[in-house]
Design brief:
- The structure is a single chain.
- The protein has helices spanning 2-23, 42-63, 68-86, 88-94, 101-115, 119-134, 137-144, 151-155, 158-165.
- With 177 residues, the chain is mostly helical.
- Helix 2 (42-63) packs antiparallel against helix 3 (68-86), helix 3 (68-86) crosses helix 4 and helix 5 (101-115) packs antiparallel against helix 6 (119-134).
- The termini are far apart.
- Residues 18-23 have low confidence and may be disordered.
Length: 177
Amino acid sequence: PHRRHLLSSIHIHIQYTFKASIERKSVPSFLPSFLPSIMVSDNTKIGSGLLFLGCIFLGLGVLFFFDPALLALGDLLFLTGLTMTIGFSRTVRFFSRRDRMRGIISFFGGIVLVMMRWPVFGMILQLYGLIYLFGQFFPILSQAMQNTPVIGSILSMPAVQQFFAGFGGGGGGRPPV
């Protein structure tokens, strides 16, 4: 009887501790209070890191005179990060849209050219594909960055706003992802 009472009290203590740790999420005080309701999954965090690393390696590959190894590694990290960030099914759906076929073919054709050690032509083709595929994000990104200290004053200029408003098919189409 004593053992059963001890196990039951341990079980209740574990349940209470687990429930209390779920109810009070540890969020720093400088973050908004609504943040615990929109916490990001681990796959999204890892995918964002891989996307960032892919962009870094692509930038380094261009900086080091179109080094094919760095560009190929950057391409692989970028695609893996994109897949982990938005999910496999949304990635397949994004890269199988008929209205974006020109961008899809040029983007993946550029990756193939980089893998075949034609980095300059591959990166030109990839850049065209990226602009064609992700062009609808540029007006959103421009709008979001207008509040930043240095870049915001440049992005707030009427000519720059007009450029980004017409960039990537404008804002009238359906969202890219």
